[in-house]
Amino acid sequence: MRYERARDAVAAVTVPTMLVRGKQSYVVSGEGSKKLLELIPTATLIYVTGAGHMVAGDDNYAFSCGLKGFLDEDVVALLH
User: Fold this and answer.
1) Is the separation of the CB atoms in 55 and 20 below 8 Å?
2) Residues paired with 44 in a beta bridge
3) Which residues contact 75 (CB under 8 A, 6 or more apart)?
4) Which pTM does this prediction carry?
5) Which residue from 1, 25, 51, 54 has the least number of CB within 10 angstroms?
6) Which residue range(s) make up the domain with 33?
7) Nearest 5°: phi and psi at 39?
């Protein structure tokens, strides 16, 4: 029941969405990322090599660059 409610809520997301996944994450799997993209096909996925679950702490530069690119492209486009 909890999974279905969460899945339905994710599928209803209509705002620009970004998932940042550290390639060594043991919390968010590659399969989990794929499922999220199936539910939110417009979402942006950024993989950060050399980072675990705490991407911003493991590689703040890669995280910041990914976030800036997302905000510059997806969010600014939404505002225009």
Assistant:
1) yes
2) 18
3) 16
4) 0.78
5) 1
6) 2-79
7) -80, -30
Work out the average pLDDT over 25-37: 93
3-state secondary structure of 42: coil
Contact 21, 48 (CB under 8 A): yes
Find the length of the chain. 80
Counting Cα atoms < 13 Å in the Cβ hemisphere of 55 gives 20
Which stretches does DSSP call E strand in 1-80?
18-22, 44-48
| Assigned token pair, 52 | 């675990």
Q: Which two tokens stand for residue 62?
A: 């890669």
pLDDT digits (tens, 9 = 90+) for 47-61: 999 999 999 999 999
